[in-house]
Amino acid sequence: SHIYCQLVLVTPSSSSSYLVLFDFSHRVNDCRRVGITCPIVPGIMPINTYRGFLRMTGIPAEITAALEPIKDNDEAVKSYGIHLGTEICKKILANGISTLHLYTFNVEKSALAILMNLGLIEERKVSRGISVSRIVEEAEAKTG
């Protein structure tokens, strides 16, 4: 069952192979319809750099178009990635999925910014150097 979930949720026909954007809830419903009841946790990889973005496959054209004019401005790309990640997470949470997996690849600032934008962690706790594991525990407690 777990393998089927992964294959259904990350297929070439999905909006994106690195994160399923708009049809995530439809894919989850497909899994549920065939009797799959395992937890389905969406993985979100914030866009941190344009070069890193180019290595991804299956990116929707609207994201590529939004990044093209700012591709040489690292801060603008990171800001866009945080905004996009926040909006995607909001949509996922609004569809009843209460668990998110944010990929950091040892660059946690964008993931932390997304969690702050969602109101799951407080900036003052991050800036005081509280460990990421404690922040995650607090975020999990808020989402139940």
UniProtKB/TrEMBL annotation:
Q: Which UniProt keywords apply?
A: FAD, Flavoprotein, Oxidoreductase
Similarity comment: family membership: Belongs to the methylenetetrahydrofolate reductase family.
Among InterPro entries, the record links this protein to: FAD-linked_oxidoreductase-like (IPR029041), Mehydrof_redctse-like (IPR003171)
State which pathway it belongs to.
Answer: One-carbon metabolism; tetrahydrofolate interconversion
Q: What organism, scientifically named, is this protein from?
A: Trema orientale
Stated name of the protein: Methylenetetrahydrofolate reductase
GO cellular component terms, A-Z: cytosol
Q: According to the lineage, what is the superkingdom?
A: Eukaryota
The Swiss-Prot or TrEMBL record lists the needed cofactor(s) as: FAD
Gene Ontology molecular-function annotations: FAD binding; methylenetetrahydrofolate reductase [NAD(P)H] activity
| GO annotation terms (biological process) | methionine biosynthetic process; tetrahydrofolate interconversion
- Asked if the Swiss-Prot or TrEMBL record annotates the protein with the keyword Glycosyltransferase, the reply is no
A Pfam family reported for this protein in Swiss-Prot or TrEMBL: MTHFR
